[in-house]
Amino acid sequence: MAPRQPLDDGVAALRDPGLAELPSDRLLEELLARLCQVMAADVAQFLLVEGDVLRVMASHGVSMDKVRDLRIPVGRGFTGTVAATAEPAVLDDTATLESFGPSWHEEGVRSLVGVPLIVEGRVLGVALVGSRSGRPFVTADVALLTAAAERAAWAVEHGLLLAAERRARDAAASVGERLDRLRSMAQALLANLTVEDVVATVVHRGVSLLGAFGGALWAMSGERNLILRGVVGYPREVEQRWRDMTLD
């Protein structure tokens, strides 16, 4: 394995201005790859706090398929403790470490270093680096990982804000689209329509407005009978059964 780079060179690689041009997800992947290179490490991960657990959002050296469903309680295990205390930590032997899925020991990772991802005093997650050689991590390693964590925290915060903004835009667009459909339906009902036209408008446009796969409209006949007036989205045999129904 290549030796660790000098601290100043390592920090410079992690604070490369060119990284800012990358999308937040791509930035995290590049940071992890550079971390392993400058720290002469084998694995690196960024974990995100979601409620009272941590979820792996980017991984290098261990396949994401292995850790995608992993959830680590905040306050437990190595990374959970880093998130809870908001303090860096070093572990020289993973053999006795509490595990919540595929263990580091099973992966052959023997030593770990982790630091919190912090933005404006809030812990967003944890940056983690591990070695399969078992070499101890020292103060210089914590400094390198902290430099990466500062950049990663910005990327995570930026990505979360963009995602929240995108969800808000999508929700607003959905509401606007439904309002347009409702106006169109109201205009159609205000027109000089026959009973059949009203039924067709309510059934067909109502289904579209609600985002449903099908719908039907019945009219009362007498006190206990229902007569099917319109249906959309259901098989013909279902329509036949629904044509005349009696209220129990």
Structure description:
- It is built from seven helices and nine strands; from the N terminus they run ααββαβαβββααββαβ.
- It has 248 residues and is α+β, with helices and mostly antiparallel strands.
- It has a six-stranded antiparallel β-sheet, sandwiched between helices. The chain has a three-stranded antiparallel β-sheet with strand order 7-8-9.
- A hairpin with a 2-residue loop joins strand 5 (111-119) and strand 6.
- The chain is elongated.
Describe the structure using short key phrases.
single chain; elongated; six-stranded antiparallel beta sheet; 7 helices; 9 strands; three-stranded antiparallel beta sheet; alpha+beta
Query: CA-to-CA gap between the ends?
Result: 79 Å
Helix-and-strand structural type = alpha+beta
Low-confidence stretches: 4-11
- Overall mean pLDDT: 76
Residues in β-strands, percent: 15-25%
Number of strands: 9
Strand order of the main beta sheet, please?
3-2-1-6-5-4
Number of helices: 7
Helical fraction equals: 40-55%
The main pleated sheet reads as:
6 strands, antiparallel
Rg calculated over all Cα atoms: 29 Å
The shape, in one word, is elongated
Order of helices and strands: HHEEHEHEEEHHEEHE
